[in-house]
Amino acid sequence: MGAAGRSMPGAVRPGMDQKMDNMKNLKPSVYNETINEGDKTYLYNFYSGAIVEMEGGAQLEAAGVSMQDAALLKEKGFLVDKNIDELKRLEFSYLSGKFNKSSLGLTLCTTLECNFSCPYCYEGKSRTGSAMSPEVITKILEFVRMKLKDNNINTLYVNFLGGEALLRLDVLSAVLAGLKAEAARKNVVLVAGLVTNGYLLDEAMKVIDMPGDIQSVQVTFDGFGVSHDKMRRLAGGIGSFERIFANMVLALEKGVRVAARYNLTGDNATDATLLIDKLAGLEKKPLLYFGHVSAVGSADTCKSVSCMSRMDYSKADLKLARYAASKGVKTDFMPVGKGNYCTADAVNGFTIDPEGDIYKCWSSVGRKELACGSVLVAAPEECITDESRYYMYTMDNPFQDTCASCKLLPICMGGCPVERQAGGRQCSKFKFQDMEFIKLYTEGVLR
Ligand code: SF4
Ligand code: SF4
Fold this sequence. Notes:
Elements: E1 2-5, E2 8-12, E3 26-28, E4 32-37, E5 40-45, E6 51-54, H1 67-75, E7 79-81, H2 86-98, E8 103-109, H3 134-148, E9 155-161, H4 169-185, E10 189-195, H5 201-207, E11 216-221, H6 226-231, H7 241-253, E12 257-264, H8 272-280, E13 287-292, H9 310-326, E14 349-352, E15 357-359, E16 373-374, H10 387-394, H11 409-412, H12 417-421, H13 436-443
Parallel strand pairs: 8-9, 8-14, 9-10, 10-11, 11-12, 12-13
Antiparallel strand pairs: 1-2, 1-6, 3-7, 4-5, 5-6, 14-15, 15-16
This protein binds iron/sulfur cluster (2 copies).
Residues 296, 341-344, 361-363, 393, 416-418 line the site of one iron/sulfur cluster (SF4).
């Protein structure tokens, strides 16, 4: 038997002196999944992320394995103590993430102006002149200072979002400088990321220290070449693919961590292989992932593009992940364990728009009826003015519905809270991929 955890690839074998005193007090984890692949049988555990090959296709029974193997299986989470309630343990870890106050997470929409006119944009048209004023910036920094008074906070996570944040480098630079000063004052680590369409990244890197001050960047592709340009064009109709690709390469060469999001729709799925081919030729590569284009909340997204069902998206994602693996391009093909879901369901997660309105989720930006407060209306301690909107996503809990019995809960945590509150459920793509990631992993294409 050989076992591997996600963070510890490769075979691990138990020491011969390991002993299990209470084998009879162990039971198989409810998060185990068995995968048969040819003459091999693997076990995967959705809670621990460990993979083990069972020799001879053996079934996992605590009573049927040697002491050494039982010790290893317990260490990797395949066997658990009989008295453990795994669901409670998972909920505890979920709630710990949700109520974790060792960090502050901000998504800042410094401007809603945009140089593109993508037909499906949930934010609607570019809003000229909609950038944070000096007054809003000052109030945001006061809000941050108030939050950082809590000495338990050791990290300030900031994600810059738009519109297109790089259209207003003056605003972005001012906010960043202020946050750096606040973080330095309290000896807190500042971790910053940027979501950009990538068009102005080259210019931005002349002004902003990347990866010094902004360590990670996400750029988006909507296709390859012409199919991308059809969607992501400048307001005057000029395409953007070549420039975005070149800017992404520039960022990678500077040591910026880059995630390349490919918005997968029924129209551009086949073109994704062309992007993978091009990425394969790069010395430094981004992490590629395929975004499911769907109507978050009540957006009209799917009126302009052919959105796929969650299942079709998941199948297409798997096919592309396999192709990418064969080309040496990394994707998010393996599940990752989750604490809480996102900033929206975390007590210390806030999105702030150019007018200083505070939201729990970026998808609500611009819809004042969903704002839970404002940095402008009050003293920093009183910025949250609508508690029910603050609680709406923060108190969302997948353990209180049918997700509680789902084996994928440790890696999914019930999906996007906005979708859940809207009555839908965005199941993890892994639910529809027949555990194929195990095959990809064991094929070892990326190792
Ligand atoms: S609630 Fe949904 S859309 Fe909003 S940040 Fe979380 S995952 Fe994203
Ligand atoms: S959203 Fe779907 S995949 Fe996720 S935990 Fe719930 S039932 Fe499982």
